[in-house]
């Protein structure tokens, strides 16, 4: 399975070298695409240098700070054009620990979208303040209740999508730019009948740099949920593949307790590495014992 990790950046020069090292330690065969919004601290220039010595590293430069959602959309389109089998979302600040990458790679073998969840058994937010816990927790409860989303962590941004999911969504019609983007994508994936698996993660605050969270981002998420409640569900741009039964189901799995696959995961093929960094609303909710087997494809 060819995989791409998409990392949006704005002033993340302090975090990226260590993050890339961690990524290639736990998923040495994956590729990384950094989507940089013209960071004043030289993040883009750093990646430009690193990718000269490591063919797994790619860079997409943008003219300015255009928002988290548009950065991921640009990355998804890149993954589709380059024919990756799956694409990750990952923050640049170590709040998404690379140690969970093997769990995601295992789970995506039998799912359409894997979400790293803070709000299922095994998930946690150990160093958050009470205020932040209340904002995040109430935001999830609000979005789940209003939009009837049976996902425990619909705002979580540590994710892995199969390419077929991204191809089925009209990416150009995605409205959200900030963290409401995660709610919107979850809603669209479910309404188009794809299967979501949640796997537990420990979410830590950023190690270095400044948080991008703001009141504007919170207001956007609230507004999106209210507006979407009174709209028709989004329509898929592609029909489901023949032989696949899309039911919009949810499964909660601690994949760390499951037997890891013997087939290779990551980027297949002849990618050369050298030097550099080492290496619809009727959705059914499944319990932890439910099989994750994907429908057979014709």
Quickly list its features:
31% helix; alpha/beta; 8 strands; Spore Coat Polysaccharide Biosynthesis Protein SpsA, Chain A; eight-stranded mixed sheet; 298 residues; 8 helices
What does this structure look like?
It is a single chain. This protein has 298 residues and is an alpha/beta fold. It has one domain: Spore Coat Polysaccharide Biosynthesis Protein SpsA, Chain A, CATH 3.90.550. It has helices at 16-26, 43-50, 68-81, 101-107, 130-147, 163-168, 180-191, 215-229, and strands spanning 3-9, 31-36, 57-61, 86-89, 113-117, 159-162, 196-200, 250-252. An eight-stranded mixed β-sheet has the order 3-2-1-4-6-5-7-8, sandwiched between helices. α5 runs parallel beside α8 and α7 packs parallel to α8.
Please summarize what this structure is.
31% of the residues lie in helices and 13% in strands.
Just give the CATH class: Alpha Beta
Q: DSSP helix count?
A: 8
Helix content: 25-40%
What percentage of amino acids are in beta strands? 5-15%
Rounded mean pLDDT is: 80
Q: What does the overall shape look like?
A: globular
Low-confidence stretches: 235-247, 260-298
**Annotated CATH topology:** Spore Coat Polysaccharide Biosynthesis Protein SpsA, Chain A
| Number of DSSP E strands | 8
How would you classify the helix and strand content by structural class? alpha/beta
What is the succession of H and E elements? EHEHEHEHEHEHHEHE
Identify the strand order in the major beta sheet: 3-2-1-4-6-5-7-8
The termini sit apart by 18 Å
CATH architecture: Alpha-Beta Complex
Number of domains: 1
Rg is: 18 Å
Largest sheet: 8 strands, mixed
Give me the CATH superfamily: Spore Coat Polysaccharide Biosynthesis Protein SpsA, Chain A
